[in-house]
Amino acid sequence: SRGGSSTSSTSSIALQSTATTSGEVIVVSTTPIPEMRPGTSGLRKKVEVWQGEHYVENFIQCLIDTAVEKNGGKMLDTIIVAGDGRYHNSEAIQTITQLLAANGVNNIWIPRNGIMSTPAVSAVIRRRTASGDGSDGQGVAQGGIVLTASHNPGGPGEDFGIKYNEGLGQPAGEDFTEALYEKTLSISSYKTVSNSPVVDLSAPIGTVYKIGSSSVTIIDPFQNYLDTLKECFDFNQLKEFGKKEGFKMLFDGMHGAGGIFAKRVLIDELGLPESSLMRCNPLPDFGKCHPDPNLTYASELVEKMGLLPDGSATTSVDVASLPTLGAANDGDGDRNLVAGAGFFVTPSDSMALICDNWASIPQFASRGGLKGVARSMPSSAALDVVASARNIPCFITPTGWKFFGNLMSSKEMFDGKDYTPFLCGEESFGTGSDHVREKDGLWAVLAWMSILAKANESVENGATLVGVKEIVEKHWATYGRHFYCRYDYEGVDSNDANKVMEFIRENYVNGDTASIKTESDIKLADAIEFSYTDPVDGSKTSKQGLILNFSLPSGDPARVVFRLSGTGSSGATIRMYLEQYEKDASKHGMSAPVALKELAEEALRLVKMEETTGRDSPTVIT
Ligand code: G6P
Ligand code: ZN
């Protein structure tokens, strides 16, 4: 059997089956548990909820049943189970493994120590072959169960989550998650095994456990992902650039899964010094930090990059002493924050810059450049401007990575066009491409390192390096700047949050905007509610955000988007996205919150934020 002879191409210890205890399949009665509907990215709940009786079991049985249904009634053959290392990771892996085995999944892959970043899981699904080396690039796993609540805090009292990725490595679509949810409402039993051996997650790569008739294999977390990145970037070039005088990198793993991958790539492969890493050891509670790489929660890195919490530069710091490139990843390593010395790059700008500089990135350059780009609706139009200037088709999707997956995999399906090589991203600190079907924090870091390497190609050793700031400012001078900022109102009462949305819908989207008076010379032009028809599968998604379009005295456009977060585990989070275009380069130096202050105040007044929610300020500004 495949699993039984599994070995690893990189590990020097290629073990055969070591433990062979088998469990007996048992059927356990259960009853439906309410509120198991997955959100934007899987089901997220407080860890204590997951620890409740039958909770993980119910959800996983329904997940398996849904996957089988989608597989034409056939049981899945190969599944990977991995998590971001948060509290309850190892326990859940054991439970899930037992359910998979009892249901008859032949091969179950678990990364050594149970920890993988989300993009690395996607790479395994796409590439790992039965022999483990992935040399023909044809993955055999039909899916992956990813244990993560992404950027939400972990530990007792905090969040745990489970999501499912399908055969191309992409997050399951809404049809899948809705079908799963339906099943959770009527489940009456699940299958598991009695007397199952406990899988030692720290066992050497290649160790195989037999549970029932299934093989559980401990696999190398890094290999397939590393192979993928090596196809995207020129590791030799990056290694050389890393040695260049004056270059310094600082990577903040926020104690999430991304840290071990950063260490493997930046230190072991690219030869950067260990001092380039901070918080790269995964911890079950992320060291009590909120592992979301934004200006508020990555405050330590932000400060070390010579930045204030509002993204502007600290005036007292000598820029030359700061790292050239600073970056942070979230809990599961798919989000990224990028900064230069004393300079914060907004995620929307980051996408636009990567698009404009595709020639610096071998993955795109070697395939004739970008053929398509996409951004989520609330992200700024910075990408659109570049795409239009460079004649690249640009798609605007609802929030959620799954929408990009469809576009990237469209190939023959969509007008006979193949939109790969493809770049996509979201304002929520997600950037990625067609190399996997998830956003990828480390990929974004290497993309920026590649841009820097190219920009400094002819800079003599010892001379001052061209920095992130110069590169972005030059970009703005060419394309104009999209001032951008997001206000989050976290933990708002759900009724109040819905009231705010309903008020906007009633009064502005369905109301007569022409009669609305603003208090400044920023005028409300119109209001719409965003909905989307997927060009690939025709599926429709509605209520994806309320957009207030404004006109500025300069004639430049501005807009404010309101949306409820789909990733929280309790209460509601109202997000307010502010965007204002400025062509005039003499005004590009302003800090974003300052440039957007008037627009923010106008929008908050119009939607009666304080009156309805009692909040006079946001919890997060980023
Ligand atoms: C997850 C998804 C992203 C999405 C984000 C939105 O991270 O993977 O694709 O942008 O959630 O989160 P929100 O809280 O705004 O719904
Ligand atoms: Zn994440």
From TrEMBL:
Its EC number is 5.4.2.2. The keyword Magnesium applies. One of its GO terms (molecular function) is metal ion binding. InterPro entries: A-D-PHexomutase_a/b/a-I, A-D-PHexomutase_a/b/a-I/II/III, A-D-PHexomutase_a/b/a-II, A-D-PHexomutase_a/b/a-III, A-D-PHexomutase_C_sf, A-D-PHexomutase_CS, Alpha-D-phosphohexomutase_SF, PGM. Pfam families: PGM1_C_vert_fung, PGM_PMM_I, PGM_PMM_II, PGM_PMM_III. Its cofactor is Mg(2+). It catalyses: alpha-D-glucose 1-phosphate = alpha-D-glucose 6-phosphate. Residues 37-190, 224-339, 352-461 form the Alpha-D-phosphohexomutase alpha/beta/alpha domain. The keyword DNA-binding does not apply. Keywords: Isomerase, Magnesium, Metal-binding, Phosphoprotein, Signal. Belongs to the phosphohexose mutase family. This is phosphoglucomutase (alpha-D-glucose-1,6-bisphosphate-dependent). It comes from Cyclotella atomus.
